[in-house]
């Protein structure tokens, strides 16, 4: 029992000494700043929750259009792939029948007199 009382007495002494190290006004100002920060964080949390709800509503409104447009683009890409495949096969047949029908790269450069729009003037 004496050991327990000694521990209690020493811990009370340490806490008294610790209290002399801390300024109560500083502690009160820290508490006040913590309450201000807590209020601001709660306000920010409310704003973010409102924004998330609004974003979810907007996404629900446009998601059907987005998926429909995505399907349309995929369909258009498949159609274009098919068209270019057919064009390549037609070009190969024409080139097989008429070898001089398509000029080679050096001839294309001499025939192409269009200005290069990529070069700054």
- Element order: H for helix, E for strand: HHH
Spatial separation of the terminal alpha carbons: 97 Å
**What structural category characterises the helix and strand content?**
mainly alpha
Let me know the number of strands: 0
Number of helices: 3
In what range is the share of β-strand residues?
under 5%
Largest sheet: none
Mean pLDDT: 87
Cα Rg: 39 Å
Estimate the helix proportion, in percent.
over 70%
**Outline:** elongated
- Low-pLDDT runs of 5+ residues are none
Please explain how this structure is put together:
This is KxDL domain-containing protein. The protein has 121 residues and is mostly helical. The protein contains three helices and no strands. The longest helix is centred in the middle third of the chain and has 74 residues.
Gist of the model:
By secondary structure, the chain is mainly α.
Give the topology, please:
Blueprint: H1 2-21, H2 24-97, H3 105-111
Features of the shown structure:
single chain, 121 residues, mainly alpha, 83% helix, KxDL domain-containing protein, KxDL_dom, KXD1-like
